[in-house]
Amino acid sequence: MKNRLKTIKNNRKRKSYCKQRNIARYARRRNTNNREKARWKFYSRNERKVAQALREGRATCGAGTGWGFFDKFYIFLWNLGFFSIAEKIKGKGYERVLISLAKLLLTYSIKILLGISSLNKVPYLLFREIALLQLIGFTALEIKEGVCKRGKGKSQPIHKDTVGDFLARLTEKEVEYVLNATVKLLSKKRFLKSSTFILDSTDLFLSRQIEGAGCKKYKEYKYDRKEKKLIEFDVIRYGFKLIVLLESKSMIIVAAKFARINEHESKYTLQLLDQGMKNIGNHKIELLLIDNAFMDGKTLWKIKKHYKINFIVRVRTTMDIAADARSMRTMMPDNENIFYGESNEYGKKIKVMGIRSLTSYDQYGDEAHVQGKNKKGFKGNPINAVMVLCWDNKEYSPGEEPVFITRLKVNEPLDIVNKYDLRSLIENCCFRELKQGWNLGKFCKKTFEAIRSHSILTAVLFSLNAAFQSQQGKSITHKGIRRLRDEDMHSIHKVAIFADDYFGIFDIEEILIINRAPPRDFFRINPDEAKKRLGLKD
To answer: Which pLDDT band, with edges at 50, 70 and 90, does 346 fall under?
Structure first.
């Protein structure tokens, strides 16, 4: 009886084991099928092979295109290794994977690059570009019938909301991984050209309050026609802010943080420095240009003493150290503690004053130093200051002079002011470009997660575009995506042809040559050069 019970028990174990094994096999097979469905491939650009296939009648498909710049950018991303980053995005919250998340990431990247401000415009501005969809990996069947059978014939290849949902499901770690891995690639390829970095933030406003957003009071002005004067009033704005660490020459964002609009920037200063140094390597940051919104004495102390990084920061008007520096305006230079610098280049008069070792900034020090500031015999740590007396022929009256503090030497105060002037680049060439040219402030889905993903991915594409322009060897380092896009969108005579694993972009006159039906007159190409380039004998 005991042996019989033992045999029954063993049979039950064996059946349970077989059942679990079959479930595991089915799961593996299902995951393999999903991966096969979600897999995407890369099309290589080869005009010669595509021209030969077109002549032999083996072309897969063809479509007109107005995005000639993107194929070059696409090749650049592939050679850089950006697609390997995209493939590692797993995405949480997905029960079934019918489409590669890398494909969704590329789709949203193209939306940003083409300047499409709203998801509602995606179906007729992006999904109608058949050749472009094939370029990023959508198959002909997916474009005709859609990715999912549920929306067969309705959403081709996918529904526009799928892209918005993808942004909302990206976690903070995933979007930060995309940013950090991209910066590491760019640093490894030596796209960073300077050791001077700029730290600043920009506000992203919302039209209404949403969960997770912050609120902040702003002063605004309105002109009263009756009173004939400006009236000041307070407004409450909702939104977030994007804080970035930008390399001043290449215009590449090496670190970024997404925060609520009411959070103080100094809270994230050291986090950005830590992440930036992890991405590009230690000792690559030598000088930090900081906006006065980041003013915090303990943080500045750590930047110099622990990180060994010099800084220049503009002082707030109401600070004691600003009043201390302004009180020395009438002092004569002694080339020991007081220095003067003047310039009259291009008829623009500039006059500045350097002051060594001011001790009136009592917040500049470690925690123990700051706590003892009210004790008898307290003495502040020395820090240098530069005061602007005249700028661009504008004389500043006493009490209104801009004051900067730094740990750099101030015996040549003009150098300090000229270096800090680079900080204006982040306003003009980064934030303004991101908002006007890259639609940073236009969100396709108004949830905290989607806005965060949109902001960080836009910063990633902005940096990749800056590197792409440098990689092409063009003198357009500070040229915005709008101008680059406008130049290539004029290529209305271009046609994209796909054949096998290759694609080519041809002028319509080249298509006629390939099909042995050349026109009598050529206006844009040289037929002999075109035949030679495409490998056509006749």
So the answer is: confident
Helix, strand, coil: what percent of the chain each, to 5? 45, 20, 35
Q: What is the 3-state secondary structure (H, E, C) of 439-492?
A: CCCCCCCCCHHHHHHHHHHHHHHHHHHHHHHHHCCCCCCCCCHHHHHHHHHCCC
**Quick check: 253 and 459 in contact, CB under 8 A?**
yes
Q: Residue 180: CB partners within 8 Å, gap ≥ 6?
A: 255, 275, 278, 279
Q: In this structure, is residue 206 part of a structural domain? A: yes
Structure tokens at 400: 């209104």
The Cα–Cα gap between 382 and 162 comes to: 57
> Given the structure tokens 């303004």, which residue do they identify?
432
In a domain, 386, yes or no: yes
- How crowded is the C-beta side of 361, counted as CA atoms within 13 Å? 28
The span from the CA of 364 to the CA of 371, in Å, is: 11
CA distance 146 to 50: 26
Q: What pLDDT, on a 0 to 100 scale, did the predictor assign at position 477?
A: 33
Pairing of strands 394-395, 403-406: unpaired
Distance CA 137, CA 141 (A): 12
The tokens describing 86, both together, are 């995209």
Which of 260, 180, 195 is closest to 463 using CA atoms? 180
pLDDT at residue number 478: 35
Any idea which residue has 């200063």 for tokens? 269
Range of the domain at 296: 191-436
13-64 pLDDT per residue, tens: 555 555 555 555 545 444 444 443 444 455 677 889 999 998 988 887 776 6
DSSP secondary structure code for residue 407 in this structure: S
List Cβ neighbours of 131 (8 Å cut-off, separation of 6 or more): 61, 62, 63, 65, 496, 497, 498, 503
Classify residue 483: in a domain, yes or no: no
DSSP per-residue codes, 54-111: HHTT---EEEE-S-HHHHHHHHHHHHHTHHHHHHT---TT-S---S-HHHHHHHHHHH
Determine what percent of the chain is predicted with pLDDT higher than 70: 76
281 inside domain: yes
CA 254 – CA 2 distance, rounded (Å): 71
Left (φ > 0), alpha (ψ -120 to 50) or beta: where does 190 sit? left
Q: What is the CATH number of the domain that holds 332?
A: 3.90.350
pLDDT of 112 strictly over 90:
no
Task: Kindly state the tokens that stand for 207.
Answer: 């039209």
Residue 106 structure tokens = 């590329």
Count the domains in the chain: 1
Q: Report DSSP state, residue 428.
A: I
**Residue among 517, 471, 491 nearest 252 (CA):** 471
Q: What is the pTM of this model?
A: 0.74
CB neighbour list of residue 156: distance below 8 Å, 6 or more residues apart: 127, 142, 143, 144, 145, 146
Residues 360/385, Cβ–Cβ less than 8 Å: no
Q: 265, 260, 222, 229: which is closest to 245 by C-alpha?
A: 265
Residue in the block written with tokens 């007729």: 124
Q: Give the β-pairing of 383-391 and 394-395.
A: antiparallel
> Tokens at residue 525, please?
């190409």
